[in-house]
Amino acid sequence: MNFGMFARFRKLACRSDRIVRCSSGHLYTTMWIWGGSIKAVRLGSRRYQRCPVGHHWAMARLVDPDSLTPEERKAAGATHDVRIP
Ligand SMILES: [Zn+2]
Question: How many Å lie between the centroid of ligand 1 and the Cα of residue 52?
Answer without folding.
Answer: 7
